[in-house]
Amino acid sequence: MKRLTPPFVLLILATLIVLFVALAGWATEPPSFSRSRWLDEQKAWGARFPEGLPPAKAERIKAFLDSLPVAAPKARAAAGRAVRISQDILEPNGSAAQPETQAEPFIALDPERETHLLAGFQESRFANGGARALAYAVSTDGGKSWNEGLIPGLTFATGGRFERASDPWVAFGPGGRAYYASIAFHERAPDNAVMVSASDDGGQTWGPPVAVRSEAIDFCDKEAVVVDTRADSPFFGRVYVGWDTVVANQRQPALISHSDNGGASFTTQVTIHDRGSNLGVFPVVAPGGVVHAFWARYTFSGNRLLTVDLQTARSTDGGDTWSPAATVSKLLTAGVFGLRTGENLPSAAVDPRNGDLYVVWQDQRFSPGVDQIVLAKSTDGGETWSGPRLVSDGPKTAAAFTPAVAVNANGLVGVAYYSLRNDPSRRVLVDEYLAVSRDRGQRFGRSVRVSTTSWDVRSAAFAEGFFLGDYQGLAASRVMFHPLWIATLDASRLEPGVRQPDAFTRGIKAR
């Protein structure tokens, strides 16, 4: 047989080496992509997400449960009637999603028709992030009755291309056009996006979701949408979407984009702020079309957390450029043991008459170790801010958490929040409360109990703590406030003797 010449020998050897390396790689193939694992990796350098518990989550929850009696204290009833708006329309599919679970509600009111309300919330929550689908509910009679559906084309459950969705946020634009913003992502693949669905009929039916921003690895998080409905604005009808992106090169900027064609397409993202780790963007539109954004910023020295601040910036040119970030206040949050709450996420609102700005959050400065609800105010377009003022009025031993703020057409300021005040143990029985100020946020009257009975939070969805949502909803008309919250009042269809979480609302008149 003819001998092989050296070049052929080298070629064969090289081929064998490549084949061996490939086979070895197959034998030791790394685990498939996991979004929750990727997020945990980012936390190591300081990325922040809307999560309330430190790393030892399982141990803390076990300690919390072990410290409780088997039965909760007896719930106290109150006058009034709340309306359940979620009806568990997504059937279980045997996945890891928690069936019959609603979480993280938000609500909007049509400024052109005050009896027209739109709600959004998660449907079938996963413990490690997101939900199988996002739901909407529409009322045309001021919240007395609701029609519910699922946002189409978003997740696998509704004919979309993503495994999961989260952070439902709704808004109305001119002509009753409705918008529904969300984040959509895979747990087992890196693709994710900020999405917006639009409705020409006020939320009764929805078009296909449009990507505001898509990422292949980096993660878009905690988005919010608002529409400029100011008649005095040069940007009337502009749709703004703000969010943060966790970037693998150890950055977490606050970002925003806008649409001038009813959400059919969006501009390239603009950076609002890119120092520290910036969590969420809450945009509001003030008189003249000035846009204000609010978010939480975490600063570090190495891996050591230095401060958590509530930041704000404004844009006078329709979101194209932004002022330097200014600090509203330090955020001094204790959290609520065993629960995942709003923690450092703010809620903001603007007085439609004069442009006064209000922002609320949970904070322990008035009762060390126990969060209460506080408010800061600006009367000069965000240039200066008042010190935090106490809003919640329950016992200082009872946590108040996850607030929302709204200002009605008459300038009354409403703040909705959850409270543990009716639980003698201050642990598991939750109620919804509303505080109203009639003097531009200087003082608040006695909080009104909105929920008709206390509920046991241990029947809520579980997501690194018992989870009602990282936020709740509150909308205001001329004389009504419409809070939207999650409560565990009704019996499960699937598990006898178990309660399930649902979305509830109730109109509260305030003159």
Q: Tell how many strands the DSSP assignment holds.
A: 33
Average pLDDT taken over every residue: 91
C-alpha Rg (nearest Å)? 24 Å
Which regions are unreliable across 5 or more consecutive residues at pLDDT < 50?
1-30, 52-56
Question: What is the structure about, briefly put?
Answer:
This protein has 511 residues and is mainly beta. It has helices spanning 6-27, 35-43, 57-66; strands spanning 83-84, 98-109, 117-125, 131-139, 147-150, 164-172, 178-185, 192-199, 210-215, 219-227, 239-246, 254-259, 270-273, 277-285, 291-301, 304-315, 326-330, 339-340, 347-350, 357-363, 372-378, 389-390, 400-407, 413-419, 429-437, 448-449, 455-456, 461-462, 466-467, 473-476, 480-491, 499-505, 508-509.
Describe this structure in words.
This protein has 511 residues and is mainly beta. 8% of the residues lie in helices and 41% in strands. It is built from three helices and 33 strands. It has helices at 6-27, 35-43, 57-66; strands spanning 83-84, 98-109, 117-125, 131-139, 147-150, 164-172, 178-185, 192-199, 210-215, 219-227, 239-246, 254-259, 270-273, 277-285, 291-301, 304-315, 326-330, 339-340, 347-350, 357-363, 372-378, 389-390, 400-407, 413-419, 429-437, 448-449, 455-456, 461-462, 466-467, 473-476, 480-491, 499-505, 508-509. Strands 1, 30, 31, 32 and 33 form a five-stranded antiparallel sheet that branches. A hairpin with a 5-residue loop joins β14 and β15 (291-301). The protein is globular. Mean pLDDT is 91; it is low at 1-30 and 52-56.
